[in-house]
Amino acid sequence: MSTSLYLTNASRHRPQEFKLAELLGALSYALDLTEGQPAGHCMRCCWIGTRIGEALDLPDEALTDIFYTLLLKDVGCSSNAARICELYLADDIAFKRDFKTIDPSLSAALRFVFARTGLEAGLSERIRALVNVIQKSGKIARELMETRCHRGADIAARMRFSQAVQEGILSLDEHWDGSGQPQGLKRAQIPQISNIALMAQVIDVFHVENGAEAAVSEVAARSGVWFDPDLVAAFMTAQASADFWPALTSHDIEAKVFSMKPAMQSEPVDEDFLDDITAAFADVVDAKSPFTADHSNRVTLYTDMIAEELGLGQAHRRWLRRAALLHDLGKLAVSNQILDKPGKLDADEWAAIKRHPGQSEAILLRVSAFADIAPIAVAHHERLDGKGYPHGLQGDEICLEARILTVADVFDALTAERPYRAAMPISKAFAILDNDAGTAFDPACIAALKCGLGKLNATVSAAAAA
Question: Model pTM?
């Protein structure tokens, strides 16, 4: 049996305390993937928005709310990815990324949609999609924004953030002149935090694309339209500081953000809070596709069943549940055109799928609280015979925890509906696992899952009969 990573690494080297700002700052890189933004987008927005708040002489509490609103501004974005693919027959990640760079006028938006809708679809499909978009453009925009904003606010609430942060995320896409979404709020109806966050997003996108001058010009052009002119004036003051723009291109942007007052005053995260944050980010992943809805939670349940049957202790199991919840973070970088495709994947699409464990690992390694579960996440598609991915590990190179997670993940994939097939009966799923026992999967883990499910079934049957 392979050596337990938990026993050899986590219990000895894991820090005992984590600061909330640093934890969410590192996890914000996962949110960048959902929008196709260059790594560090949320982090740079946090720097920009907090500096604008400082230029306004806002009190510490308001600066803290701005800080966390910007780190979490995209926490609801994965929830509209499948719908974007469905409506526009397009790569959701590229579509959302490029849409942020266009002129804010309606004509520019329509030109963008016409140019991007259904490029890889047949002519009749493309025409149907375009007609639908033309007929329902206002309703579609409102629907997409409502989904994203409400989902984001709900997740922020689950992570115990203030009402101000929740409202900041909820109203992120409202515009000063009332032309925004989803409620069409206007002027003072829009939370100041939301307008600062939207401005910070625009500044970063245009700065990355074309530099500081382009970002300043874009914000000035949207003053009184998208943005409160007083906030634009505060931005002009903030950006005039000698350190403002260089920080956005420096290699130590994280250190600069974490040295800001809201981060320095950040509260420590205990084990229960860490569990809440883990569960919230698992929901972000699962919201990306209707075919993966609740996948991470089910995999976590099966993982914990196996771990219990194998005799792992409570602390060990809690640690492993976090790995199960976050194992698919890297799927946020995969387009829904691939995730939801009903047919066979081509070579490029399959390559994109095979990259997701490595992307999960890269994100988790940024987070001090989760660095010790990164080796589990990256190995959940490895096989005992060395034919798995991404590293082709084999035999004892695959630790016990990864073997447990692999069986749980495959079992759920087989018994859940997928775009290319219906859900399998449990008996058929176990027949497939048994057929590959010892070559792909650990037989002891398969046996433990059978035993755990048997006990669960007996408990449910007894309760029903009582």
Answer: 0.86
